[in-house]
């Protein structure tokens, strides 16, 4: 598809939209065409929503999830278990755990993982802030829910090393065979974790 056929302003918008995660040039073109052909008020409302999001949404001062207030809705919720913190890499991971409905505690978003090859060390993610929370909040358990990547595993091991001498329970979420998965297509590491995390009936 040649973008030369479009007016320069439309071409520029398509190129910008195509930089969004999961969007290629075709999807970006469809979105641009929708914005061009929808009622002007609708396009303006979308643009205003983006501007408001950028100016009003920031990270929670306690857990570093996104919010438009001082504390996010989860940290403000009095029904949450304040003694348990689930440590995740990103807000997207927080939302995945939250959608399961299985966790009723609070979170801590690291906003990244340790990645020495990319020069990302402990001072580049929210580890200091986690330790500060342990000193000021009555935390009884830390659940480490970093992803099963080499960086996620390295971050989990680093956190365990930092926290092991503290008087709290440290656990790691289990990884295994997904519901509807097929054993013959399961990778070695997932199979190993599934066997180690097996439970009695």
Automatic annotation (TrEMBL):
Belongs to the RecR family. Residues 83-178 form the Toprim domain. It comes from the Bacteria. It comes from Desulforhabdus amnigena. HAMAP family: RecR (MF_00017). One of its GO terms (biological process) is DNA repair. A zinc finger (C4-type) spans 60-75. The keyword Signal does not apply. This is Recombination protein RecR. Gene3D superfamilies: 3.30.60.80, 3.40.1360.10, 6.10.250.240, RecR Domain 1. Pfam families: RecR_C, RecR_HhH, RecR_ZnF, Toprim_4. Keywords: DNA damage, DNA recombination, DNA repair, Metal-binding, Zinc, Zinc-finger. NCBIfam families: recR. The gene is recR. The keyword Metal-binding applies.
